[in-house]
Write a structure and sequence with these properties.
mainly alpha; elongated
């Protein structure tokens, strides 16, 4: 933002022309309300109307969607995106918040002499992998979704399947593949890639499905969805970890030699300490894949119907020419 202050040159908008005689202004059409005014706008050449207009109706009329308020909350598209984002982001939050406990459990199981410095280093490594891939994926998913849209005509909602699959892969690796602390970074990196992608892709899908005029409001509602699954998955993980905690009498040998220390409340069973919670997130991510496929199919169908309606409207247009000189 600071750099843009010096290098970005503002371009003023062209002056607004007064509406021609016989043509309704967008404000006047908004007062009529509903999608009827949008249809009048399409017939009279106005390309944007600040009124409630679903994505299907907007595509059929060649206009931009504008969904908000009560119509947003009663839209099946909103609850579809809400459910997908809740499960995916909830999985990411659970993993990020508890990767330190996962690293600790795997480290204690894999060594004979407990070194708190090494344990902290392994935990820091997981955070580094997640942060690096979280940042990189925000660029990655933007390039992928734009390329698929511009090169092949795929809607950005298709990329939801890719993001959901990355989440599912990370949970599969953490639950079934990673048995040693040295390989936990694979699951952490994949999770970081997926988590960054989801928060870069969903705002674009929200914009395309519900329109620009109320984008901030709509995305605010969607971005609150991780509250549901995030808290649920974290509570399940905590209960699972507590159920496998060691007794206070368990001790571990310190790296300094013969001295021992008591690791109270620390599970020493490795992957068994938390794997049941990962089974839950695996199921949630697989369900998200199915919902993402459905979302892409619905979006593609709406686009196809809208394109067909646009071609039909163009074919039915009659060009009236005035008398020659």
């Amino acid at each position: 933002m600071i750099a843009g202050f010096f290098f970005v040159r503002p371009i003023p908008l062209p002056p607004t022309e007064a509406p021609e005689e016989g043509r309704r202004s967008p404000v006047a059409m908004e007062e009529q309300g509903g999608e009827e005014s949008a249809l009048l706008a399409a017939q009279e050449g106005v390309t944007h109307v600040p009124t409630q207009l679903s994505r299907r109706a907007a595509l059929n009329q060649g206009l931009s969607p504008n969904v908000y308020g009560r119509k947003l909350w009663t839209s099946s598209d909103f609850w579809l995106l809400f459910s997908i984002l809740s499960m995916l982001a909830g999985t990411g939050l659970m993993f990020i918040n508890n990767v330190g406990s996962m690293s600790q459990a795997l480290y204690i199981q894999s060594v004979e002499v407990y070194n708190p410095v090494d344990a902290a280093r392994w935990q820091a490594d997981q955070v580094s992998f997640i942060s690096l891939l979280n940042f990189s994926s925000r660029i990655f998913i933007g390039l992928v979704s734009d390329y698929a849209k511009n090169r092949f005509g795929f809607p950005r909602s298709y990329s939801l399947v890719l993001v959901s699959s990355l989440f599912f892969l990370s949970q599969v690796m953490a639950a079934l593949v990673v048995t040693d602390i040295k390989h936990l970074w694979l699951a952490s990196a994949t999770l970081g890639l997926a988590h960054g992608s989801v928060f870069s892709l969903f705002p674009n899908v929200c914009l395309e499905w519900f329109g620009m005029p109320h984008f901030s409001e709509n995305w605010g509602y969607l971005s609150a969805s991780p509250i549901v699954a995030g808290n649920l998955f974290s509570v399940v993980f905590g209960h699972n970890l507590d159920a496998h905690d060691s007794s206070p009498s368990d001790t571990a040998l310190l790296a300094s030699g013969a001295a021992t220390t008591t690791l109270t409340g620390t599970c020493k069973l490795g992957r068994e300490c938390y794997v049941d919670a990962l089974y839950l997130t695996m199921g949630a991510c697989f369900l998200s894949i199915l919902l993402s496929v459905w979302a892409g199919w619905r979006d593609r169908k709406k686009l196809a119907v809208g394109a067909a309606m646009a071609r039909q409207n163009r074919a039915s247009e009659v060009i009236w020419e005035g008398p020659g000189p």
